[in-house]
Structures are given as structure tokens and as C-alpha cells.
Write a structure and sequence with these properties.
- With 257 residues, the protein is mainly α.
- The protein has one domain.
- It has twelve helices and no strands.
- α2 crosses α12, α3 packs antiparallel against α6 and α11 runs antiparallel to α12.
Length: 257
């Protein structure tokens, strides 16, 4: 089968790693955050501010808010590209500052732009799907977080919330598998988007338990960040962003040349 795939699109070799490596990735992420705190805080503050604005706008439209926050998480990996660049600079012993970030975004790398557009499209699709499910499946309409909790999560007749979770999982799982190492790889090496996607899937196939644990850690920390009215995201976002870079370095075999 691999002979049918053009060489430039073939996945790169990956490693099998121990599941507890996930906690080492977090430790490295925290260390990088401490080495370049202003850059990390800026990324976290921007995403926290965006989440706060979203919360303020849709507080009485929770049928939009529930999907919007989930959609926001889908596009967060591409928004963390600057953090990956900072971690790469730190590994190389290069200056890691705002200039590192602006050079990445200023390059307008077509591959990263395409990936970002793909994530945005999928995030938007989930927002629409989530809103349609909640508005059509729950009566009277859900308007506030309290409505969502009582009429969807704690509903006497189960079904809508379980379906909402199932649909979200069906969308999030393949998206996570496609992006877990793809975006850092696109930043780090001149490979095609198809190669990056296939490499990401190969990494997941080789490390299903490890990367399932990693997905659970990401979700748990993000929920904790959201639960602090976005303030927790100021630290959670940069630590996870830097940690993702170290996950990529562990999982994808380095070029020998």
C-alpha cells in the first residue's frame, strides 16, 4: 500500500513511548513556560480574553456557548503555533521571545494556514451541529448555563446529553489524532500536510494508551481553566502548548541528516 502513496506524502517513522511520558511532557512544558513567561502569558491571556468575550456574548444563549467552547478547543492547537516555535528555539539554544512568535506568524506558511482553515471549518461545523441538537432536542429552549445543566445534563429522560457527547467525541477523536503532532511537525520540517496528517495518525496508532491519556490530560486541564472563568487558561494554554512540542519531539523520529 505504501508504494501507492507518493514519497513526499508518506508518514515519517514514529516511536512507541511509555504512557507516563505524558507527565514528562507537562514538566517540560512548565519549564519552557518559566523560561519564556511573558510569551506564554500573552498567549494565555489572549485566549482567556477571547473565551471571556465569548462567555459574555453567549451567556443567555447557552445553546451557542456549549458548542462554541468545544469549537474553540478544536482550533486551539493552531493558535498555539507561536508556543511551539518558542519551545523549538529553547531546545536549539536560540533567543525565545516575541520576535520568535512574530516570525512564525509573519511567514504565512501556506501549510499552517491550510491546517488552520481546516480546523476552523470543523470547529464551525461542530458549533452548528451542537446548537441544532440542543435547540431542536430540548424544550423549552436552553438559554442559560443553569438551563443546560438541568434540562440537558441532568434531564429526567436521558438521551440528548449522551448524544451530544457522542457526536462531540466522534468529531474530536479523529481531529485529535490528526493534529496531535501534525502542527509542530509542519512548523519544524518541510513536509506536506498529507505527510503530517499521516504521521500524526501513525503516532496515535503506535501509542493508543499514551495518547488517550494525553487527550484526557488536555481535556481535564482545559476544563479546569474554563471553570475558573477563563483565568486558569492564562497558565494552562502555554503549558499545554509547550508540552505539545515535547510530545512531538518524543513521538516523531528525528532526521539523521
Amino acid at each position: 500500500m505504501s508504494e501507492l502513496i507518493p514519497a513526499e506524502h508518506r508518514p515519517l517513522p514514529v516511536r512507541k513511548v511509555h504512557s507516563l511520558r505524558t507527565f514528562r511532557w507537562l514538566a517540560h512544558g512548565w519549564a519552557d513556560f518559566m523560561d519564556a513567561p511573558l510569551v506564554g502569558l500573552a498567549h494565555g491571556a489572549v485566549m482567556g480574553l477571547f473565551g471571556g468575550l465569548l462567555l459574555a456574548f453567549a451567556w443567555d444563549r447557552f445553546w451557542v456557548l456549549a458548542g462554541a467552547f468545544s469549537g474553540f478547543l478544536l482550533v486551539a492547537p493552531i493558535l498555539s503555533t507561536g508556543l511551539y516555535a518558542v519551545s523549538r528555539a529553547l531546545v536549539r539554544g536560540e533567543p525565545a521571545n516575541f520576535g520568535t512568535v512574530t516570525r512564525v506568524w509573519g511567514s504565512l506558511d501556506r501549510r499552517l494556514v491550510q491546517f488552520g482553515l481546516l480546523l476552523t471549518f470543523l470547529g464551525t461545523a461542530w458549533v452548528i451541529t451542537s446548537a441544532a441538537l440542543i435547540t431542536l432536542g430540548v424544550k423549552p429552549p436552553v438559554s442559560t448555563p443553569s438551563d443546560f445543566l438541568h434540562r440537558v445534563v441532568l434531564a429526567a429522560d436521558p438521551g440528548v446529553f449522551e448524544l451530544w457527547l457522542l457526536l462531540g467525541g466522534l468529531m474530536a477523536a479523529p481531529l485529535f489524532a490528526s493534529s496531535v503532532v501534525a502542527i509542530p511537525l509542519l512548523l519544524d520540517r518541510r513536509v506536506t500536510m498529507q505527510c503530517a496528517l499521516r504521521t500524526s495518525w501513525r503516532a496515535v496508532a503506535a501509542n493508543p494508551i499514551c495518547l488517550s491519556l494525553w487527550a484526557a490530560i488536555i481535556m481535564t486541564l482545559t476544563v479546569l481553566g474554563l471553570g475558573t472563568l477563563m483565568f486558569g487558561l492564562i497558565v494552562v494554554i502555554p503549558v499545554l502548548g509547550h508540552a505539545t512540542w515535547h510530545a512531538y519531539r518524543d513521538l516523531v523520529v528525528r532526521e539523521t541528516s
